[in-house]
Structures are given as C-alpha cells and as structure tokens.
Amino acid sequence: MRQSRLWAAAVAVCLSAAHAGASPLNWPDEGEAMALHCAAVLSAYGHAYEFANDLAQVEALPFGGPPATLVQEAGGDASLSAIEELAAGYFSHAESVARTNFYPRLVGDGTPYLADDGRELVMAVQSCVDRYAL
C-alpha cells in the first residue's frame, strides 16, 4: 500500500507539469497509469458538468468523482490526489465543453457544439468508458 501511495505521488509530480494544458488524448502505457489517466479524464468531465451548472445558475448534484473500480485500478484511495492533479491539467478542455455544449443545453439558448479542445475531452471520455466498460 505504501508503494502505491509513493507511486501515485511520483506520478502526480511528474505528470502534473507535463499535463498542464496537455491533450487528454495523450495516452499513457497500460496498467495503473492508464487507469489514472482515465480517472482524471472523467474527473475533468465532471468538472465541466459542475462548471456549466454554475454558469447557468442551476442547482444540480455535484460530481461524485470517478467510478470506484477505476480508482482502485489506478492505485486506490492513495491515488485520489494524483487523479485530481492530472484532471486539473484538462480543466481548459472541460470548461470548453461546459461553455459550448452543456451550457446552451441547460439554458435552452444557442446551438450546442464542441470546440476542438472540448472534442478531445469527449473523445477521451468515450475511449475510457469503452476501455473500462463503465
């Protein structure tokens, strides 16, 4: 367990700088790194939902985080801080999804679409959902 926590911390430090503003379509190798990446992508997508609701001034249930099975595969609870650190690197993508796709749907005004950065996040989410059968 200690080794998992150390690994998660090391990954967070190494990847946080590399992922700041990075594409969610940059896939790591298999195993824990892939699960960590997918958990971060799903967390960023949850941020998009919360951000859009804030913009629309709509009360909604908060995003509860990535699925527990994915968190366990990413290294367990010790990896939660690493997941959030990586997810923060995709927040610009998430805010794009929120502004261009979720928000117009919530307020019923405008035509929802996906800008390129938002499309990258949505494609990454779809790939992760398919990969882990979520």
What labels would you give this structure?
134 residues, globular, 6 helices, 68% helix, mainly alpha, single chain, disordered N terminus
Protein described:
This protein is mainly α. The chain contains six helices and no strands. Helix 2 (32-56) crosses helix 5, helix 2 packs across helix 6 and helix 5 (91-107) packs across helix 6. It starts with a helix and ends with a helix.
Topology, element by element:
Blueprint: H1 2-19, H2 32-56, H3 68-73, H4 80-88, H5 91-107, H6 116-131
Helix pairs in contact: 1-4, 2-4, 2-5, 2-6, 5-6
In brief:
The protein has 134 residues and is mainly α. 68% of the residues lie in helices and 0% in strands.
Number-wise, the strands total 0
Helix content: 55-70%
- What gross morphology would you assign? globular
Order of helices and strands: HHHHHH
First-last Cα distance? 25 Å
Helix/strand-derived category reads mainly alpha
Largest sheet: number of strands, sense, barrel closure:
none
Low-confidence stretches: 1-20
Radius of gyration (Å):
15 Å
Mean pLDDT: 84
Helix count, DSSP H or I runs of 4 or more residues: 6
Beta fraction: under 5%
